[in-house]
């Protein structure tokens, strides 16, 4: 019985470690796409007591300072709900207006996409991100989903 407090403390610590993280992130390399220029992400928005902030990011390799370097790209965003409904829009991702990390021959760009998003349906959503035109030296696309308690 004298070990009971230590055991309870250990169990509580383990239970706290099992909670879902508030931020999830996934990056898909260009060569890992099933179809060229199409990136598919699963986004868990099942928490009914939360809203979500979603950001997009990418990395461009090579000389991004060259005169013919793209200033941005239009993305076709298709959200598929847990029940199969589709919601779509076109979004312009500006490389110049994003928060940037410049390296010698690499540029990482991050741009907020949606803030305070409350889904019309709770559950596991699928985001299909498609580039409307190819981008030279693009390494891939990533998504960051941050869960905020209401």
Major sheet details: 5 strands, antiparallel
Strand fraction band? Answer: over 45%
How far apart lie the N and C ends?
A: 41 Å
Tell me the overall shape. Answer: globular
This entry's quaternary arrangement is single chain
Count of β-strands: 9
The SSE string, one letter per element, is: HEEEEEEEEE
Q: Which characteristics define this entry?
A:
four-stranded antiparallel sheet, 1 helix, five-stranded antiparallel sheet, mainly beta, 150 residues, 9% helix
Please explain how this structure is put together.
This protein has one helix and nine strands, in the order αβββββββββ. The chain is mainly β. β4 (72-80) and β5 (86-94) form a beta hairpin. It is globular.
Topology overview:
Blueprint: H1 4-17, E1 23-29, E2 38-45, E3 50-61, E4 72-80, E5 86-94, E6 99-102, E7 106-117, E8 123-131, E9 138-149
Antiparallel strand pairs: 1-9, 2-8, 3-7, 3-9, 4-5, 4-8, 6-7
Task: Briefly characterize the structure.
With 150 residues, this protein is mainly beta. The protein is built from one helix and nine strands, in the order αβββββββββ.
């Amino acid at each position: 019985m004298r070990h009971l407090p230590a055991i309870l403390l250990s169990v509580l610590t383990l239970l706290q470690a099992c909670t879902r993280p508030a931020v999830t992130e996934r990056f898909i390399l260009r060569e890992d796409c099933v179809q060229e220029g199409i990136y598919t992400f699963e986004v868990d928005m099942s928490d009914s007591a939360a809203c979500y902030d979603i950001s997009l990011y990418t990395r461009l390799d090579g000389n991004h300072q060259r005169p013919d370097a793209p200033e941005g790209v239009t993305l076709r965003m298709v959200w598929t709900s847990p029940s199969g409904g589709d919601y779509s829009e076109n979004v312009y991702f500006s490389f110049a207006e994003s928060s940037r990390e410049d390296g010698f021959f690499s540029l990482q760009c991050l741009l907020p996409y949606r803030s305070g998003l409350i889904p019309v349906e709770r559950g596991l959503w699928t985001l299909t991100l498609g580039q409307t035109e190819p981008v030279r030296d693009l390494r891939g696309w990533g998504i960051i989903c941050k869960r905020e308690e209401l």
